[in-house]
């Protein structure tokens, strides 16, 4: 088992090394301004972090992402539970859910930023609304499995609602919530970032857009690396939490 | 009936609010304005030339990228499903390709390639390959060991093994992958189109956003959503049902 994990880790590290090598090779072949070498990009990123310039945009984007993510998780979980418990509610919201799943993200971003104004709240609500259907369908399907197994047992033992929520639903929902949370956070982080690229005047996305506008690819890639690193850290944290809960 | 009711109520609310509370047709277009824009789009009339040309360009890009992504994702997915090491090696690049938004890929590719159709298409391919790859790998891993051993003992190898064994065994996964990646594609194709192209719906939507006209944006949104839902419902839905039935019959 341990051997297996090390070979997996080696393969994962090897792929990153190969990617970086390809990037470096491409940077040497292509004109420097069009594609700066990885070490230049990471040097710029280091500078941004050491000088503290990175933290204000990072905080702005992260704050909006987390608020929108929380909103989406709460709405989505609520929707999922309601849809699993009531057939009528599921039928009522079926089309709305379909519509919300298929609406192009760019249309939503333009619509929200312009109609509701460029405020933090707009982005938070937008992120929440994009995240909600994903979490909702996840929880709904997970609850579907749940229904058959345990409800009858709880009924026959005459267990109260409060105990049911804390004793049955929450422990049961934890693994699907964490799985949905991983997908949802990635989505939230991307939508917050995109709405900054398409018009919200601060945060990491705006920095990337500025980098493109002034044709400073090195800066653009440095901010992009920051974007990727944050996502990577979030993913690892969620995975850790997932592993702990599944074991438990 | 129940499905449609909230949508009708929603449109009613939208009309009430935009007619009586937020009376600013440019920023908060009432439904009838959006309908008028919808008809205008359908009659092939728009500010930047014929709308069908833009819609056609967008759909062509989406279909090209989606087909390429489907082929690449499936082939790599089969390899990764068979060999754990390949999967581990692919996991990080796929994750990176998937996590970078398409517009950022467009930024980078534009600088490298200049203004070409290849830019948005390859940005979309990068993003759409990932779900196909992951789904296929999962499907191949789910194939039973007995069947694999049978294949080995009959010396079914190479191309024949791929088309005769792997692809049929994961047919239901393939349809699901196609469905998911198409739905994803139609949601994000516009994001790849806003910058650096002479045509496409993305440009049009950005134009309307810059001039602060919301009605056409909503109209395009409705159109694309409708196309996405129609393809999902009329093409992938029946296809998935049929494949499921067939696999149940053969069991």
TrEMBL record, chain A:
The keyword Cell membrane applies. Residues 58-238 form the ABC transmembrane type-1 domain. InterPro entries: MetI-like (IPR000515), MetI-like_sf (IPR035906). It is found in: Cell membrane. Keywords: Cell membrane, Membrane, Transmembrane, Transmembrane helix, Transport. It comes from the Bacteria. The chain crosses the membrane at residues 6-30, 37-56, 62-85, 92-114, 120-139, 168-194, 214-234. Its main location: membrane. Gene3D superfamilies: MetI-like. GO terms for biological process: transmembrane transport. It holds the Pfam family BPD_transp_1. SUPFAM superfamilies: MetI-like. It is a multi-pass membrane protein. GO terms for cellular component: plasma membrane. The keyword Transmembrane helix applies. Belongs to the binding-protein-dependent transport system permease family. This is Binding-protein-dependent transport system inner membrane component. It comes from Salipiger thiooxidans. The lineage of its organism: Bacteria, Pseudomonadati, Pseudomonadota, Alphaproteobacteria, Rhodobacterales.
Automatic annotation (TrEMBL), chain B:
GO terms for cellular component: plasma membrane. GO terms for biological process: transmembrane transport. The chain crosses the membrane at residues 7-28, 59-81, 93-115, 121-140, 184-207, 213-236. Gene3D superfamilies: MetI-like (1.10.3720.10). InterPro entries: MetI-like, MetI-like_sf. Residues 55-235 form the ABC transmembrane type-1 domain. Keywords: Cell membrane, Membrane, Transmembrane, Transmembrane helix, Transport. Signal peptide: none annotated. The keyword Cell cycle does not apply. Pfam families: BPD_transp_1. SUPFAM superfamilies: MetI-like. Belongs to the binding-protein-dependent transport system permease family. This is Binding-protein-dependent transport system inner membrane component. It comes from Salipiger thiooxidans.
